[in-house]
Description:
Order of helices and strands: HEEHEHEEEHHHHHH
Mean pLDDT: 77
Strand content: 5-15%
Helix content: 55-70%
Shape: globular
Number of strands: 6
Number of helices: 9
Strand order of the largest sheet: 3-4-6-5
Largest sheet: 4 strands, mixed
Amino acid sequence: MNTMRQGPATPRRRGGFRWWVLILFALYAGYYWFSNQQDAAFTGRTQLISSDPQQEAAMGLQAYRQILSESNVVTQGQLPGQVRDIAARLIQVGPRVEADLAAARGVKPSIQWNAFDWDVSVIQSDQANAFCLPGGKIAVYTGIIPVAQNLDALAAIMGHEIAHALLRHSAERMAQQKLAQIGSMATGMAVSDMDPQQQRAVMAVMGAGAQYGMLLPFSREHESEADEVGLMLAAAACYDPREAIGLWQRMGQLSAGQAPPEFMSTHPSGETRIARLQQLMPRALEIRQAYCGN
Length: 294
């Protein structure tokens, strides 16, 4: 009986780019974007947020407890009382400042103040840092005190961090990162039939586009917003907003020219930040006069 000899198997031919996957992602991204829009507090800027303030507060509390459990919390001396006093003054004027800034921009106040359960700690550390987590959990590291040099500058730092929480910047970044992650998954599916080298090239381009086109610019915008709102909070709480200029000059000296180019950074350059604060200073001094009478 004759048998037919089979030739070598023909390798499977790889396909091209699956555009339909990205089209479906674009439709979903559009739905996700428009269904989760809201006006940012203080500024009225449209922002993307998909989480609930209570959920954010719970996450902030969990992180805060974890940080404190691993840190040396300062309870003695003048500093904890001074930090708590600054926080109390900034928080007290918050609703009025929000109402005034919102009215100036023709938007309605939107902060759910009852979602914040404020707490303040001082942490012994060489880090020149401070933070305010969602839900109002504030910490100041002792390493920032020599940079601040005075209570007015410390108020500018704490006002900046409190502004991040009030503006829900963490929630906005989470929503943006979720969108970027879904886009990365969609791109991976779209190039799955392409040559491996081509796949890596496309994924690298898409990843860089998300990083430099969306995430970093938004982070810089968050920092600029927090600078503005924090400055106004400090001024309304009767601290001298002009001390913020010297503060950021000293922060720039601390980095000793090691900061990356602004377009590659999550923060504005020191020069950009100081120039913006100088533009805002007349308004900050007006607010201080209106709230404090001096």
